[in-house]
Structure to design on (543 residues):
């Protein structure tokens, strides 16, 4: 008797349970979609597909803001935001369904259609099968919502009470005994079962995704990098300063910055990976396997990379020892000539397995610098986050015009004929790295003690080299800092300056001069369209 209310469920109670039903339906839709995506491909899941579509359509200035605010957690924030929005929409659709059952279920199907459209319209879409996760997930969610709302309408008729042994009290009337009520216990059991089944589907999807990724992990674990034909010279003594707080000369793989648009890090099986080189000016088109590249002469070089989204004084720069195949050698093998030697193509378009396109000047790749298809990083096969099995590395260019990760295709074309991903969004076609310097050891608004303070940091001007670093305190004269030994002109250079700090508030500023004689400008510009400029300064109060 306690599980039956003798009045039909109405009002706020019905809306509340409708909202709960919507939330459960949304949960089921996402869980089923992820399970189906494990069978199709993880990138086809609705959260990833919608997130990717959102990234593609977000203005460059907003993306830049997200990177500044959230750093490498920007993708996690986006995914959590998408799930939050889906949760709110599910609650609303559940309340709609509580009044108009069919309309609420239709709303779930509509959002499934949005996810399906986003999946098939992604640059890396493999066809209509990418729509299946969103479609089947939406169908599961719509059916569940329709069923749960139906439980709110389902009635129970309590059993008529037994006839009294003595006529001491009047019997319950037949009308009262037959009065219907909604099935509370049935709804609770149905909702619990739905939540459990959805959780099971989600866990199964994760397990399947993990098992598929194991093939890629196994292929990476099986890689033994051959000894390079051209080894990097030993890092000169005095290159790495022993100063607390300064960035290490070589950035560990786990600390190397990651800025890209991939919501799911591609797990590529190296045994199945292929690279195609084709296009304008290619006399001999080639398709290469990972083993083909391993069998070629390899070069090993220390190269500093910088992201164009790096603000003045920002963290998105890192130095590593890369091993790979010289890209110019591959292009020459295909009959490609640089524009300065009569070649017809001036742009190399690299395509990633996730659909990213990056355009690089052919002249820069073939001018003698150590541009490569990298296979290894700091003595190990590339980490998945940094492009395993193969990525591009071109010294002196910002990553968005050179550093294609998870590369699968190289097409030779012209800048007039094709705009790559970032160029379509307002960034420059060509973007050499700007001369920059950074203070590492002083922290903004810090309170160091008076006395000699070692101010230190790094400076970079890849492919030109750093010639001088200077430090200024407040509006005083520029004082030349001590430069650490240089590894190569393609790496950053550490510097230090012993500052005799006096009590009070001070602003310390740094500037660098590269080997061409160009001194870092004091004019502040945004990262868009070709990288930030200006001088890094830190305000402190000396106690």
């Amino acid at each position: 008797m306690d599980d039956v209310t003798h009045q039909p469920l109405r009002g706020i109670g019905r809306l509340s349970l409708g909202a709960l039903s919507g939330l459960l339906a949304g949960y089921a839709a996402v869980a089923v979609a992820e399970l189906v995506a494990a069978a199709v491909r993880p990138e086809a899941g609705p959260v990833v597909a919608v997130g990717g579509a959102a990234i593609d359509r977000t203005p460059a200035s907003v993306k830049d803001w997200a990177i500044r605010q959230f750093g490498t957690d920007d993708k996690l924030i986006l995914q959590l935001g998408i799930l939050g929005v889906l949760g709110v929409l599910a609650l609303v659709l559940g309340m709609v369904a509580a009044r108009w059952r069919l309309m609420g279920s239709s709303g779930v199907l509509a959002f499934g259609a949005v996810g399906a459209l986003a999946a098939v319209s992604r640059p890396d879409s493999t066809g209509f099968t990418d729509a299946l996760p969103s479609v089947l997930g939406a169908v599961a969610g719509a059916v569940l919502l329709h069923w749960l709302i139906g439980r709110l309408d389902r009635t129970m008729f309590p059993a008529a009470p037994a006839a009294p042994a003595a006529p001491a009290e009047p019997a319950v009337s037949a009308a009262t005994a037959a009065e219907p009520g909604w099935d509370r216990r049935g709804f609770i059991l149905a909702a619990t079962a739905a939540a459990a089944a959805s959780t099971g589907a989600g866990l199964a999807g994760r397990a399947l995704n993990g098992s598929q990724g194991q093939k890629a992990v196994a292929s990476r674990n099986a890689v033994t990098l051959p000894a390079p034909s051209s080894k990097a010279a030993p890092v000169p003594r005095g290159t790495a300063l022993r100063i607390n707080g300064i960035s290490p000369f070589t950035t560990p793989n786990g600390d190397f910055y990651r800025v890209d648009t991939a919501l799911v890090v591609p797990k590529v099986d190296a045994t199945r990976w292929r690279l195609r080189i084709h296009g304008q000016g290619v006399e001999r088109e080639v398709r290469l396997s990972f083993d083909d590249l391993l069998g070629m002469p390899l070069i090993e070089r220390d190269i500093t990379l910088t992201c164009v989204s790096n603000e003045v004084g920002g963290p998105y720069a890192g130095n590593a020892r890369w091993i790979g195949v010289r890209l110019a050698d591959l292009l020459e093998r295909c009959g490609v000539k640089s524009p300065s030697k009569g070649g017809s193509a001036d742009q190399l378009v690299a395509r990633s397995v996730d659909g990213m396109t990056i355009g690089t000047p052919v002249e820069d790749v073939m001018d003698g610098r150590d541009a490569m298809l990298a296979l290894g990083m700091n003595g190990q096969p590339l980490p998945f986050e940094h492009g395993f099995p193969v990525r591009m590395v071109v010294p002196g260019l910002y990553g968005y015009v050179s550093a294609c990760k998870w590369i699968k295709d190289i097409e030779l074309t012209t800048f007039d004929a094709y705009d790559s991903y970032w160029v379509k969004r307002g960034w420059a076609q060509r973007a050499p790295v700007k001369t920059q310097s950074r203070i590492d050891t002083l922290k903004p608004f810090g309170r160091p003690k008076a006395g000699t303070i070692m101010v230190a940091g790094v400076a970079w001007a890849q492919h030109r080299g750093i010639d001088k670093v200077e430090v200024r305190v407040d509006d005083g004269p520029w004082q030349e800092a001590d430069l650490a030994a240089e590894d190569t002109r393609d790496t950053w250079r550490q510097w230090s300056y012993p500052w005799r700090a006096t009590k009070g508030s001070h602003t310390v500023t740094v500037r660098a001069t590269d080997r061409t004689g160009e001194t870092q400008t004091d004019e502040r510009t945004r990262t868009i369209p070709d990288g930030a400029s200006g001088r890094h300064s830190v305000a402190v109060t000396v106690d």
Observations:
- The longest strand covers residues 504-514.
- Residues 1-6, 168-180 have pLDDT under 50 and may be disordered.
- The chain has eleven helices and 20 strands.
